[in-house]
Design a protein that fits this description.
Blueprint (H helix, E strand, L loop, with lengths): L11 H4 L13 E10 L4 E8 L5 E8 L3 E6 L6 E8 L4 E5 L2 E3 L6 H13 L1 E13 L8 E12 L10 E6 L1 H9 L6 H13 L1
Parallel strand pairs: 4-9
Antiparallel strand pairs: 1-2, 2-3, 4-7, 5-6, 5-10, 8-9
Amino acid sequence: MRRWNPLPSVPLNSCFPCGEGYNQAVNMRVEREREIYRGRVFRLVEKDLRLPNGRRTRFSIIEHPGAVAVVPVFDNGDVMLIRQFRPSLGREIYEIPAGTLEEGEKPLQTARREIVEETGYRARRWSRLGEFYTAPGFCNEVLHVFAARGLEPARAEGDADEMIRPARVPFRRAVEMIRKGIIRDAKSIAGLLLYDGRR
C-alpha cells in the first residue's frame, strides 16, 4: 500500500491574499479525447491528460451545461420547496426548484423559467446567492443559486417527465428539515444555507 504523506497545513491567506486565486486555471493539456456517451443533458468523455506536474493520466469526465437553483421566499418569510420523484433514487425527496441551462440561456433566464414551471409562481425581485461546482471529482457542472422574492401566482406547463408537488414551509422549518436529514439534496442544503447567511 502506498503511504500518503500529507502536506503541512498552511493558512489560506498565506497562499492567496484575501482568499483569491483558489479557482485559477492551471496548465493542463488534453492529449486525446473520446466521447463515450451523449445524453439529453450531459455527455461522458474520456480524456488523456498531461497534468501540471508533468504526469499523464486518463479521466472520465461528465460535461454538463450548468444549472440553477432557486430559493423562493414569500413576503412572510416562508419558502417554497418542492417534493419531486427521482427515478435514480426510486423515491420522492424535498428540494428547492432547479433546472438545467438550455442552449443560449443565461442563468437568471433559466431561474425565471424554472420557478414558474415547478412552483406555479413568478418573482418580481431576484438576487444572486452564489455558485458552486456540484461534483468536481468527475463533473464540470456549475450551479448558480438565486433568491426569488415578490412571488405572485403564474401558470406554465411543467416537463412531462417530472412529478413535482410544491410544499410551502416556514424558513426555520426548512433549516430544521436539513438538520433532521429530511432534506438530503445537496443543492437544496447549499441554497437554503446560502440564503440563511444573506438574510
